[in-house]
Amino acid sequence: MTGRIIGITGPTVTVDLADLKLYDRLKVGHGGLQGEVVRLASDHAVVQVYEETKGLGVGEPAQPLGVPLSVRLGPGLMGQVYDGLQRPLPLMGEKFGPFIRPGCELPSLPEDSTWLFTPLKKAGDRIEAGGALGFVRENSFDHYIFAQTGGVISTIALGEINLQTPVATLEDTTLLHPAHDWPIRTPRPFRRKLPPTSPLITGQRVLDFFFPLSLGGTAIIPGGFGTGKTILEQAIAKHAAVDVVVYVGCGERGNEMAEMLEEFASLNDPWSGRPLAERTIMVANTSNMSVAAREASIYTAVSMAEYYRDMGCHVLLLADSISRWAEALREVSSALEEMPGEEGYPTYLASRLSGYFSRAGVVETINGKMGSLSMILSVSPPGGDFTEPTTQACLRASGAFYMLDTSLAHRRHFPAINWVQSYSLYAEDVDKHFSEAVSPAWATLKQKGLALLQKEEKLREVSEIVGAEELQDEDHLLLHTAGELRDRFLCQNSFSDDGFSTPEQTVRLMDLIVRQYEEATTRLAQGEELSVLLKEMQ
Amino acid sequence: MRLAEYRYSTLQGIRSQLLFVGQVEAVRMGEVVRVIAPDGHELEGEVLTVHKNDVLIQVFGECRGLDIQNTTVVFTDAIKQTPLSPTMLNRVFSGSMHPLDNKPMFVPDRWWPTGGFPLNPTLRESPREFIETGISAIDGLTTLVKGQKLPIFSCAGLPSRQMVADILKYSRTPQGNFVVIFVALGLTHHDYAFYMRTLEELNTHYVAIVNLASDSVLERLLAPRFGLTVAEYFAFQHGMDALAVVTDMTNYCDALREISSAREELPGRRGYPGYMYSDLALLFERAGRIKGRPGSVTMLPVVTMPEDDITHPIPDLTGYITEGQIVLSREMHQQGIYPPIDVLPSLSRLMQHGIGEGLTRKDHRTVANDLYRQYARGRDLRGLAAIVGREGMTETDRRILDFCDGFEKEFVHHQVGRRSVLETLDLGKELLARYTPP
Ligand SMILES: Nc1ncnc2c1ncn2[C@@H]1O[C@H](COP(=O)(O)OP(=O)(O)OP(=O)(O)O)[C@@H](O)[C@H]1O
Ligand SMILES: [Mg+2]
Fold first, then answer.
1. Whose CA is nearest to atom 9 of ligand 1?
2. What are the C-alpha distances in Å from B358 to residues A83, A189, B186, B354, B363?
3. How far is the C-alpha of A409 from the C-alpha of A227, rounded, in Å?
């Protein structure tokens, strides 16, 4: 059943096919551009096309593939760089040159590469759908091979396998393959969700100490241009204490991706000491690449992330920026002439977003393991105005809010996280954990630190009214300490050795600052000179 | 590929620069069409949307004189292409690539699609190496790097025109294989004459593409695409470092808004279309370098901030795409400082990769950081000085205030001509030393 193109508007194409399912994949045009059905009518269907439609002609063929838009999951994902449709960008570059032209297609996984398979089941064993048949070694960890259908195993491989041959057969003759396709818009199943309680260490002092994230938690980083979203996301991608990082460059700059690739090729994971590339998957759908593929990119990424979660890994998904995804959604929606909601965004923006956030969490997997998927997404509000729809929808759905402040960024206070407005709903549970595992003083120090910053704020207000001369000596001491706290603790230059801090180092530094302050306060009360104390504290 | 051109006289409607044509067979998205008016004059256009046999066409040029009965539309089966040749150097073209310099059209060596293709991010070479603009505030503190896109945020009435002229005149690379692509959008006749004089005096290679204020609005959208295709050609075909200076992107965005509203699209913030971010990104992302190839495309677009407002959608979206910004200040202009660059909000995000030993000079980073820090402190102190008076301040603070003035008057300000980056750094060091307490 092949149809024809009957209309083209922007990234959408109308085809004269009727017997399709919503979200089915299609190939359109002589070039075989990829698309997905987004609207059905009795005698035609509307297809969202994931590549540039320029040059596409009316009357050209439309070939339904009978499957929804999917990612390919299997050994070989790790270290890859994909576009929003999971096309392998390095290989595309090798085959088709530096520019991406429509219709280029290559397999997402190296289908002919071989892997050493260790079975966990034997012939005669029963396996349920989603159960682990065995594993192969992918870099430093075990990559589990899941059965796509359940049944009784009749044969199972041992030793070298490749992705083209089955790894097991069931008694009903079903073939089980080491790699499979998964529809990107469908969350992967698990047994049950668990509450997120243990910390996700980011290596950023201000986050880990004041606004900690938990494994399985979600956070957003909204901020105007140049406030440091990308640098922060990349710093976390480098330093986070997780097993797997999936990083999505969603509608952002090509040079940033190039920079990141270069850096990741040479750096090591600070926790395991192994190359960062061995734990990272990148999805790079830059702002000049297809807008429709940008819309798909975050789903492609989350499906890969869930796949590793299902192996019992702690996975962190970072996306920069979710606003560009929302804009892509708006572009497709407006090409479909849907009724616009606020600021032209489709009315389902908020529900799509909350659906997306809910793919995060700590789970007990089908195989009874514990895995987690955490998300940190940057948000780019137009004009830095946080009341706009995307920021608001993200705020409602996420558990931590890392607000980037333009005025801090202008003063080159990085990461420019506003310590008054930001919050984390995970703090209570995570602090308990840090107090037990890192330092019993954690929670007390945190309160003291926050109090210092709050008092500083008040003092500044006062001194603006009455003038700095009216301040007492202890006020000067406090202002000095708060300044130290901001410059040495809150600020963390990503381009220096200070870019990463373990929780132990973090709490030690806070302890030092607080202790110095308390000692100086006591000595001041005993009559020592302020200037002497300040000099000593330098 | 069709063997013959298809001609249609089935116009169903005309609205500003949009034509509705019926009963068309086998048309392609983005296909170039020729529109032949009843009096025989020809216009170019492009297919915008197709539904069954109805086609919507946007026309480049003035639609005056077209009618329903006697206008013919010829479908060419081709996508918009840019003619290219090394002989384009040092020539001036219109927004539809016709010569404006009274010389005959060159013979194209090849044609490239005007829209370009996205560069595979894994084959991008990250921007490194330095482009000297000859302007101290830029070279010293917001250094431009090959493959970067760095806009100038100006305000109405500020001398951005003079600055563009200076950048055209003074920019160069240490390697010397350099070409500037000058793209002017919505230019007045007065400015046109000014820039033509500037181009005549250039010592570097250039290609100019000029869209006048009286020219077609659609051409205004096309001109930067031609310019960037030319830049890519010289960069990646001939290994040159191409610097595309585009002025003024605000006119571009206004043209985008005008056409969007003619198409009856849903308006976004301040009436600009929702896809403006992606549209601008398609232009700006063409800046870059390619792994394993010589040559680079660098972009320096000028944006005039409407109502001096940096949160206006045009500078805002630009800032979200570019790698930093150079901000001009009305206040500094009023104090007679030229170019009136406010270095505090200005930033080149890629600067650290373009400076230092072997690129500019070993001490560049330190000098730049010290200058920035002292100047930022001085600017804070100015507020205080206004309240308590100079006399009420400490000796150190007074020195910083003096530094601040000196920095603006001697470093940011250019009395005459260009400064090499080494001269810039020496000047910066001298200023720092002069006002540092002994
Ligand atoms: N942690 C940091 N340490 C040092 N410098 C930083 C840090 N964060 C940000 N910066 C500075 O701020 C600049 C802008 O940061 P970044 O690119 O992350 O901004 P952004 O919020 O992603 O902006 P956009 O929305 O335009 O993408 C950087 O180039 C760098 O100069
Ligand atoms: Mg960014």
1. A228
2. 36, 55, 41, 10, 11
3. 5
Sign of CA dihedral A524, A527, A529, A532: negative
**Is the Cβ–Cβ distance between A284 and A82 less than 8 Å?**
yes
DSSP of A81-135, one letter per residue? EE-TT--BHHHHHHHH-SB--TT----SS-TT-EEEEEESS-TT-EE-TT-EEEE
CATH architecture assigned to A3-70? Beta Barrel (2.40)
Higher pLDDT, A19 or B426: B426
A282 forms beta bridges with: A81, A247
Closest by CA position to A314, among listed A402, A202, A429, A185: A202
pLDDT tens-digit readout, A202-235: 999 999 999 999 999 999 999 999 999 999 999 9
Fold of B6-78: Thrombin, subunit H (2.40.10)
Output b/e per residue, A130-159; b: 16+ Cβ within 10 A: bbbbbbbebeebbbbbbbbeebebeebbee
Write down the residue that tokens 């046999």 correspond to. Answer: B53
Nearest residue of chain A to residue B267 (CA atoms): A344
Domain ranges of chain A: 3-70, 111-178, 193-427, 442-537
DSSP label at residue A510: H
Which CATH number applies to B82-354? Answer: 3.40.50.12240
* Order of all β-strands in the sheet with A132-138: A141-146, A132-138, A114-119, A159-162
> Which atom of ligand 1 is nearest to B352's Cα?
31
d(C-alpha B90, C-alpha B106), whole Å = 12
> Which atom of ligand 1 approaches the CA of B347 most closely?
31
Residues of B in contact with A287 (CB under 8 A): 277-278, 281-282, 285, 321
Residues A87-105 pLDDT 10s: 999 999 999 999 998 888 8
Average pLDDT, integer, range B230-257: 96
Give the separation between CA A434 and CA A449, rounded to whole angstroms. 16
Condensed to tens digits (0 to 9), the pLDDT of residues A287-324 reads: 999 998 999 999 999 999 999 999 999 999 999 999 99
| H runs (alpha helix) in A426-529 | 427-437, 442-466, 473-484, 503-525
CATH H-level, domain A193-427: superfamily:
P-loop containing nucleotide triphosphate hydrolases (3.40.50.300)
How many Cβ atoms sit within 10 Å of the Cβ of residue B26? Answer: 15
Rounded CA-CA distance A479/A537 in Å is: 13
Q: Tell me if A258 and B126 make a contact (CB, 8 A cut-off).
A: yes
Nearest residue in chain A measured CA to CA from B353: A259
Angstrom distance (rounded) from CA A338 to CA B158 = 43
Dihedral angle, C-alpha B257, B262, B265, B268, nearest 10 °:
30
Residue ranges of domains in chain B: 6-78, 82-354, 364-435
Q: Is the CATH number of domain A442-537 2.40.110.10?
A: no
Which of B26, B118, B291 has its CB closest to that of A100? B118
Distance from CA of B194 to the nearest CA of A (A): 34
Top-level CATH class of A111-178?
mainly beta
Asked whether A302 and A310 are in contact (CB, 8 A), the reply is no
User: By C-alpha distance, which of A232, A277, A284 is closest to A494?
Assistant: A232
Shortest CA gap B379–chain A (Å): 12
pTM of the full predicted structure? 0.94
List the beta bridge partners of residue A276: none
Q: What are the chain A neighbours of B376 within 8 Å (beta carbons)?
A: 411
Tally of CB atoms within 10 A around B405: 13
Confidence (pLDDT) at A460: 83
Q: For residues A207 and A427, give the distance between their C-alpha atoms in angstroms, rounded to a whole number.
A: 10
Angstrom distances, CA of residue A336 to CA of A8, A268, A280, A440, A520 = 11, 46, 36, 57, 67
3-state secondary structure of B78: strand
